[in-house]
Amino acid sequence: MYLSYLLVALSFQSALSTTCPRRCSCDPAQSVQCYRATEIPREIPFTTRRLYISHSKIKQLQFTDFRRMSVLEELVLLCSGTESIENNTFKALSTLKSLELCKNQLKQIPTFLPSGLEILRLTDNSINALHASDFAGLMKLRVLDLRNNLIATLPPSAFSSLYNLQSLILDGNNMESVSAPLRLPRLKYLSMADNKLNSFPTNFFASFQSLHFLSLTGNFLTKVPLDLPKSLLSLKLEKNQLKMVRLRDVKHLENLSEFLLSENQLTSIDGAQLLPNLTTLELSKNQLHTVPLRLPSRLQKLDCSNNLIQRVTAQDFQGLQDLKHLFLDNNAVSTFEAGALQPCAQLSNLALEQNLLSSIPLRQVNLRTADTLARLDLKGNDIEDVGEQELKDLKQLQVLNLRNNKISLLDRKVLEYLPRLRHLYLDGNPWNCTCDLLRTRRALVAKGTDVRGGQCAAPAQSRGESWMSSKKILQQCEDNLSSMERGKEDRRKMKPNEASSVGVNTDDDYYDYELD
Ligand SMILES: *[C@@H]1O[C@H](CO)[C@@H](O)[C@H](O)[C@H]1NC(C)=O
Ligand SMILES: *[C@@H]1O[C@H](CO)[C@@H](O)[C@H](O)[C@H]1NC(C)=O
Ligand SMILES: *[C@@H]1O[C@H](CO)[C@@H](O)[C@H](O)[C@H]1NC(C)=O
Ligand SMILES: *[C@@H]1O[C@H](CO)[C@@H](O)[C@H](O)[C@H]1NC(C)=O
Ligand SMILES: *[C@@H]1O[C@H](CO)[C@@H](O)[C@H](O)[C@H]1NC(C)=O
């Protein structure tokens, strides 16, 4: 960041040194950037519309600093150790629309802000209280971002002018409670993540008639607040202490599309079908023993990873014809009833890693599912056999992760069903490196699939070799390959050092699969 300022500064300095202050760069679009200043530079052109100052040491802002900048629209003062601001410093800036004073040491909201202000960001300061007059007259303010300060309460009177406020961000403060309702009729986005809130008074949300997005992630809530506004599209309640969610209490959220409940203490959830427009439901890191019952039919993403689910039944995904992303990883699933995925005709991403599966649960999938599944993760299960039946017709499969299972054989024919396979993860399996496996190797090379791992556990003379790249195995099997087959392999010219690139990513959390 700092370096790029420096470079910009240097390149402009020579050309414009007569009109531009030291340690600043001025561009023709009337914007000025300064760094390492110890005061607001005096010589900033009066025609400046945008002023960016960062990484400076400006302890106090004074009334005289901006007095003559009569067309200033945007002022950013970042990382400059600013502690205080004189009364009226910004008052006369009638064209100022956006003021950002982030990462400083301000203890209060600057006073007498100009009434045309639309955006005010004061993130990462030490503001510990809001006062009734702080935002007085800011009828045009749309965005107020106060994240990462020390605010403990919200006095309703402080917000009474903010009739047009659309976005209020209070993440990372010290709020333990909020009192009477705030009247912010145009508010669309409210985020109070990472505070210490444990409940809301009745009617707190009643006046937010336009709210679309609400985040209360990272608080101490034990209940879903009542009276949430009907207009909500997204509700984030992750990292709280919810033990139960009564869907009856939120069923008025008829347009809710995203409901995030990960990292709570939920043991079950039932009745999500009451939210007809729900497309995303996240329940990761709870204590669910089963897949939630009665899910809404428009669901596209269901995340039940990191729970205690042991069994997936044929009814679990009934009616979920739009489901695209299903995360059941890090559970204890040992039983996955045949046909359970039959209804999911759009499934593209199936995460089943770190369970107790002994086979690939795709025996009776919808033919259309076979046409959409792009990523299948089975890492860390107890799978021994990879049969044609399970992977049949997965025409779109691009990523198959079989790492850390008990697979010793992989029939070349299985690959014929996977025309688009690009990434195959095989390490952590006890491969039996027979000459048959060499045919599979050839098929993979021909496809251009990127294969990770594949160390032989047997036979004894091949132990430790990697069957995708070993020359030794190739020689051992020489007699078993027809001359035609051998020719193919030679022409492809396996690089001798491929062995060393194989298995570089042995990190179990390696998750970086790109899909088309
Ligand atoms: C700044 O304004 C506030 C509020 O009007 C007032 O209480 C305070 O005394 C003023 N400070 C100075 C230094 O004038
Ligand atoms: C739900 O969405 C529809 C369509 O966008 C809209 O007409 C309706 O007013 C919304 N309902 C609520 C309660 O906001
Ligand atoms: C929510 O669902 C209802 C009924 O299915 C529908 O009329 C409405 O348009 C949906 N709202 C949105 C935003 O999709
Ligand atoms: C490897 O495969 C061969 C041939 O199918 C078989 O005879 C042998 O027992 C297998 N070895 C192991 C360890 O499974
Ligand atoms: C090659 O095939 C013959 C039988 O066709 C078998 O006896 C021999 O063990 C095979 N060699 C290897 C290395 O698998």
Automatic annotation (TrEMBL):
Show the segment(s) annotated as Disordered: 479-516
Q: Which residues form the signal peptide?
A: 1-17
List the biased-composition ranges (Basic and acidic residues): 485-496
Name the SUPFAM superfamilies for this protein: L domain-like
Which keywords label this protein? Leucine-rich repeat, Repeat, Signal
Keyword Signal recorded:
yes
List, alphabetically, the Pfam families matched: LRR_8 (PF13855)
Return the InterPro entries for the record: Leu-rich_rpt, Leu-rich_rpt_typical-subtyp, LRR_dom_sf, SLRP
Source organism superkingdom:
Eukaryota
PROSITE patterns the UniProt entry points to: LRR (PS51450)
Biased region (Acidic residues) positions are: 506-516
**UniProt key word Secreted:** no
| UniProt name for this protein | NEPN protein
The protein's organism comes out as: Urocynchramus pylzowi
